[in-house]
């Protein structure tokens, strides 16, 4: 009896513009995904891998390839219920750590979906946020907690703007007011300072890098 050949193919990405090392890294990652049959049965590890390949392609000048690959990532993430609240899944994730990973991945995808849409002028790939709550920040620093809340609220508001088919003057004014109010909630250390436009003045170090190094 002939055995049915398992389909292990995945999106092929042409990468002629990448140098040898970059090409090898992406090709190795894609080959590992193919061998794991991630298109047949997705996993958190496969989603994490695809999410990391996306920015790598974008930063290598392959933005359209990253956008195409992200569409596949969305479907695989939805296939394992990444858009759902972990407590509603059956079976539920076995550990709190896995719940946190699922939430972090999904909200990162919501943010990236918004970035692709704004950059390319194309519709959002994710039609609905789902009921997966934002991840809990793994810090007690009030500035980082405030920044995390800002990012989550901005992601939701940006998606509302991008999904609006007809933007009337009234809607534009309303969204502008909401964005201005949201900007005021950003930590002061990250808000734009007009003195940064002075070419003779040295720009300050990125504060989040310092905070990350000290953790």
Number of strands: 0
Span between N and C termini? 59 Å
| Radius of gyration based on Cα positions | 20 Å
Task: Note poorly predicted spans.
Answer: 1-16, 210-215
Proportion of strand residues: under 5%
Structural class: mainly alpha
Compute the number of helices. 7
SSE run: HHHHHHH
The rough form would be described as globular
- If you average the pLDDT, what whole number results? 80
Describe the structure.
This protein is mainly alpha-helical and 215 residues long. It has helices at residues 20-35, 44-59, 63-79, 96-120, 142-162, 169-183, 207-214. The longest helix is centred in the middle third of the chain and has 25 residues, at 96-120. It is found in: Nucleus. GO terms for molecular function: DNA binding; zinc ion binding.
Summarize the structure.
The chain has 215 residues and is mostly helical.
Indicate the topology.
Elements: H1 20-35, H2 44-59, H3 63-79, H4 96-120, H5 142-162, H6 169-183, H7 207-214
Keywords:
7 helices; mainly alpha; disordered C terminus; globular; 215 residues
């Amino acid at each position: 009896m002939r055995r049915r050949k398992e389909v292990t193919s995945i999106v092929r990405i042409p990468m002629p513009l990448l140098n040898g090392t970059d090409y090898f890294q992406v090709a190795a990652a894609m080959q590992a995904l193919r061998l794991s049959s991630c298109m047949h049965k997705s996993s958190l590890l496969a989603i994490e891998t695809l999410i990391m390949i996306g920015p790598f392609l974008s930063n290598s000048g392959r933005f359209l390839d990253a956008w195409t690959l992200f569409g596949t990532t969305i479907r695989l993430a939805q296939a394992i219920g990444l858009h759902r609240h972990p407590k509603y899944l059956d079976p539920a994730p076995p550990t709190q750590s896995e719940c946190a990973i699922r939430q972090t991945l999904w909200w990162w995808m919501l943010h990236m979906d918004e970035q692709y849409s704004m950059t390319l002028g194309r519709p959002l790939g994710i039609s609905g946020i789902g009921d997966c709550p934002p991840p809990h920040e793994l810090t007690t620093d009030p500035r980082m907690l405030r920044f995390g809340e800002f990012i989550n609220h901005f992601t939701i508001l940006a998606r509302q703007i991008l999904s609006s088919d007809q933007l009337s003057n009234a809607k534009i004014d309303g969204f502008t007011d909401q964005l201005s109010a949201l900007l005021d909630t950003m930590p002061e250390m990250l808000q734009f300072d007009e003195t940064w436009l002075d070419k003779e003045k040295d720009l300050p170090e990125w504060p989040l890098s310092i905070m990350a190094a000290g953790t």
